[in-house]
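Progress report, Aim 2. The chain analyzed during this reporting quarter is listed below.
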Amino acid sequence: MSEPLSSLAAAPRTWTVADFDFELPPELIAQAPAAERSASRLLDAGPAGSEAPPVDRVFRELPGLLEPGDLLVFNDTQVIRARLYGAKDSGGAVEALVERVLPAADSAGAQEVWAHLRASKSPRAGQAVHFRNDAGESFCAEVLGRCGPENGLFHLRFPSDAFALLERFGHVPLPPYITHADTPEDARRYQTVFARHPGAVAAPTAALHFDEALLAALDDRGVRRAAVTLHVGAGTFQPVRAERLEDHHMHSEWFEVPPATVATIEATRAAGGRIVAVGTTSLRALESAGRAAAQAGLDAATTPLLAGARETDIFITPGFDFRVVDRLITNFHLPKSTLMMLVSAFAGYERIRALYDHAIAQHYRFFSYGDAMVLTRAPHSGLFQPEAAAGRGGTGVAPARQNSPWP
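Predicted structure tokens for the chain:
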């Protein structure tokens, strides 16, 4: 049996995956969302550096934890019905998880995608896969070949608009730790109320707790809102394969930080407000844009981040110097995951261990449909090192059986 999280000694300088392991009772893995979005529990970690016990709250109490002039930054990505079932011409069953829809259709209206495929024998370039829905309808996709990082994905051509075909034939891509098949309720609840831009294969789960009543209460409180877009990929469930974190290659995801969001962040900072990222995906987008600004040699006090759309493979681990985000709202994450490493970097390793001990003892619900916590950034010494940060990522998104995109 592993030790209680908070009993471990101070973290070593060379971080390993084992530093972020903990024992989670299986019954704490949420299989369904709370009856109401904002009725989830919220663990209030308190101010940065505090050793006081955290406070157990309900998520709808969030406005009272923020100040007028603070800025909430949401990820407005939309989860697509990315999971498809079908068969090859030979009759062998195929399951697909679309990882990315490529942007442009060809002159005939066909659109290409990158996808994970699971079959007894992988299809070859030139073969066809027939995907079907529960109504007995089907469409044919052509396999163009292997693609993506380490050739871990399949390049497919759909006969028409990919988003329309996925909406008609696809299933909600529930995470592998949710054991039931997707339902119409999942189609509603595994999606934020402000989802706008289709492309994600996993939800920005911290944002699932927000409903219209809570957003109105935040407006009344004088809390401002802005948006980024980061299309969450299946790589979010990929385990860290290397023992040392510095040897891990992070998966890549597309994101965009609009100029209006950059302007709002700069105005919030100038007025003394705090930047509150709703979820680790929003934080990754903001800090990736911050890293781009640092690499461009821009002054963090005047230009903390660069607007624009690009790929990010940023890997945030303890010792990372944050440039943009002051507070973070996030769910509880899987043991040994990159997201455990991120929140440990943000709030402090020992503090996160103590918070997770408390959450387990108080029977908080974990993972995508689970409860949330609100964290304040711990102080960090040293300067942001863009040269070091630039070499830390990778683009490996090949699925693994443990924490893979497959149920």
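The two ends are 26 Å apart (CA to CA). Residues 80 and 154 are 18 Å apart (CA to CA). These observations will guide the mutagenesis work planned for the next reporting period.
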